[in-house]
Amino acid sequence: MNWKDALKTVHLFGSPEHTLAWEYLCRFAYPWQALDGLKDWICELGKTLPENEYLRTAENVWIARTASVAPSALICGPTVIGPGAEIRHGAFIRGSALVGEGAVVGNSVELKNCILFDGVQVPHFNYVGDSVLGYRAHMGAGAVTSNVKSDKTPVCVRYESERIETGRKKLGAMLGDFAEVGCNSVLNPGTVIGAHSNVYPLSSVRGYVPANCIYKSGDRIVVKR
User: Fold this and answer.
1) How many domains does one find in the chain?
2) β-pairing, 213-217 with 220-223?
3) pLDDT tens digit sequence for 93-111
4) Structural domain containing residue 166
5) Integer Cα distance of 90 and 26 in angstroms
6) At 81, is the secondary structure helix, strand, or coil?
7) Bond preceding residue 31 cis, omega within 30 of 0
8) Which residues 6+ apart lie within 8 Å of 199 measured at CB?
9) 28 domain residue, yes or no
10) What span, in angstroms and rounded, lies between the C-alpha atoms of 86 and 198?
11) CATH number at residue 83
């Protein structure tokens, strides 16, 4: 499989049963293409959720009755928070967000226009914008997605000398299932981390990191043994 095919929705995420968004995501060849219509889709999704399982707490905000939400968290619509999710002290969900079952959105974390599969953990001082995080992906304390280039030009996804034009001025990161991002790392616009790959702490990551690899630095990406 070439690298461009590996980035397609059906290959990048291997746990379709672990998100309410799978059918929606599969409308698009690449997952970042789903971000434009995410707001409207979440509004429609919320209307279909069973009232005995989800509580509508504000306009276009649906929270599973088994989720835990700290009183200090601010949640704007449209947002859906899944069963058993934990929204901790000072979390700020700006809207257009789907938080999966059992996910953790922690202290001072900010979410905007993103999909978090089930079991995702963004527990400490993270920013996740215009991004899709696969099943049980984890971002260490202070790790953030950067979703706008400094020159404000459209974002490309790059691998070695090749690239894919996304046409988006705002694009954060796509994390495959079980991806691990080390503390205080920056995922630059258009970063894609393959499933089961690890990023060293304090990294500045750009482009595509294949599955089952360790990102040590820009020129040191090694396959896991």
Assistant:
1) 1
2) antiparallel
3) 999 999 999 999 999 999 9
4) 3-213
5) 33
6) strand
7) no
8) 179, 180, 181, 182, 185, 187, 193, 205, 209, 215
9) yes
10) 24
11) 2.160.10.10
